[in-house]
Amino acid sequence: MHHIILNCETDFDGWRTAARALVLNEVPPDKVTWVVRNHGHELSDGAQAPLEPPQGTFNVPAKFVELAKTAILHRDAERFALLYRLLWRLRRDHDLLDIAHDPDVARIHAMAKAVHHEAQRMRTSIRLREIGREHKSHFVAWFEPQHHVVELTAPFFASRFADMPWSILTPDVCAHWDGYAVSITPGISNAEMPAGNRLEELWQHHYAAIFNPARLAAKKARNLPAAPTIKLESESADGLGSATTAHAATEPQMPEPAMIRRAADSLSVLREEAADCRACHLYKHATQTVFGQGPQSAQVVLVGEQPGDKEDLAGKPFVGPAGLMLDRALIEAGIDRKKVYITNAVKHFKFVPRGKIRLHQKPNTPEIKACRQWYERELASIKPDLVVAMGATAAQCVFNKLTPINKNRGRLIDLDEGVKALVTVHPSYLLRLPDQDAKEREYQRFVEDLKLAAELLRKRAQAAA
Fold first, then answer.
1. Residue 293 — pLDDT band, cuts 50, 70, 90?
2. H or E element: which one contains 274?
3. Which of 15, 27, 125, 453 could crosslink 22 through cysteines, CB 3.0-4.6 Å?
4. 286 Ramachandran zone, left/alpha/beta (phi>0; psi -120 to 50)
5. In a shared domain, residues 279 and 255
6. CB 110: neighbour CB atoms within 10 A?
7. Is the pLDDT of residue 10 over 80?
8. 121, 150, 176 - which closes a domain
9. Structural domain boundaries enclosing 279
10. Would you list the DSSP string of 6-23?
11. 89 & 185 share domain
12. What are phi and psi of 366, to 5 degrees?
């Protein structure tokens, strides 16, 4: 019997090295046990037959490697053995992963799916809380992952909140960002689990083990308490299994006191939180946050660019000239505005003053990214059937990338979890057209796009009847 000891719960490199040697030494799966170091496992009595240095090579499908990298993050204690059993079988049956009803294949796919879902839950449920103020501030969150996804997901937060120091504390490992790189430290024991106001107490207790003071000085944080240099985990060759050494995003983002909360928050809770949003600099000059408006039960979410001058003053979306154009088009398309939810990709008015006039300015990518958390949470709260992206800024927000309008309009596009998306122009585009014939022609195209939304709603209603 061969006893393989892995260094940690996510030791993919260690598993891969051992698995390769085992296969090349023709050691069958039932002759191998897998344990994780420091888990209290004792090797059985008797000498273990040494493995010969591996000779030769063998190939497995690339999709197995990617599947293994993800599934190994599952908490199932048998995952290492299951992966080795699949590897053993794949050497003889290269198409094994295509047999969906095979018990081992079905189980490993279910594990990988659960890991992906947990990573998504971490991205959408964490709320960073500000500890301290000004130069002494830090953003901290507590999270209890169902699977080992902290190191996998940490680069997401490093990219999104690049200009704010944060720490995510969990029972497994803790992830920290100092503006330059992600670092990983041991987890917080369940006995230390924060309750109520203990998060700040817990953070102060662990603060000294986090950051390199030289880096903090470079970030003009000289007032922070001194801390010993922490060893940064290097990025693994395959980019998974250890924390990614991430650099600050080239597109800066401003800190905000309340980041992502629970995906299922009601719209009233989200609206209240967004009122104090400081995710980018636009709040400094806007009158107020202009949050979305409409029923929680809406089947359609309309996404525009940003509030204009009238919306900024009124605190409601689409109440100016573009709103009137939208109202008219919705009526002609057969959609009741009172039954749809209307919001914007960016929720503060961006403008340049020209005397008494405030001239609209198009939001840039960092501003869209900083504000996208609110769109994500609106969508998670409403769970609509369709999202209509009106204009390039809205399309960039909905698809999280630059998305051409003309190339993608006129058809329904699949998003996650059965949600459809429809791309069209922004109503303000119609207002800017100087030629009356062109304006009428483009307006009719806009109405036709909205009729696709109306038709989808009718089909969903008929299917539910």
1. very high
2. helix 267-274
3. 27
4. beta
5. no
6. 13
7. yes
8. 121
9. 267-464
10. ESSTT-HHHHHHHHHHHH
11. no
12. -60, -35
User: Rounded to an integer, what distance in angstroms lies between the CA atom of residue 45 and that of residue 411?
Assistant: 66
This prediction has a pTM of: 0.48
d(CA 344, CA 121): 24
Q: Tokens 């369940």 appear where?
A: 190
The per-residue pLDDT for 259 is 37
Can you give the three-state secondary structure of 48-114, one letter per residue? CCCCCCCCCCCCCCHHHHHHHHHHCCCCCCCHHHHHHHHHHHHCCCCCHHHCCCCHHHHHHHHHHHH
437 plus 454 within the same structural domain: yes
Is the domain of 306 the same as that of 374? Answer: yes
Bridge pairing between strands 386-390 and 420-424: parallel
Task: State whether the Cα torsion 104-106-111-112 is positive or negative.
Answer: positive
In a 10 Å sphere around its CB, with 0-12 CB exposed, 13-18 middle and 19+ buried, how is residue 42 labelled? exposed
- E strands, 245-401, are 300-304, 341-344, 351-354, 357-360, 386-390
Enumerate residues 6+ apart whose C-beta is below 8 A from 19.
83, 84, 87
Using CA atoms, how far apart are residues 412 and 419, in angstroms rounded to an integer?
Answer: 10
The answer to whether 423 and 389 are in contact (CB under 8 A) is yes
pLDDT in tens, 237-270: 333 333 333 333 333 333 333 333 333 478 998 9
Tokens of 281: 């600099």
- Which tens digits make up the pLDDT trace of 166-208? 889 999 999 998 877 889 998 887 666 545 445 555 555 544 4
Q: Is residue 93 domain-shared with residue 138, that is, in the same domain?
A: no
256 closest CA partner among 367, 139, 341: 139
Please name the amino acid found at residue 413: I
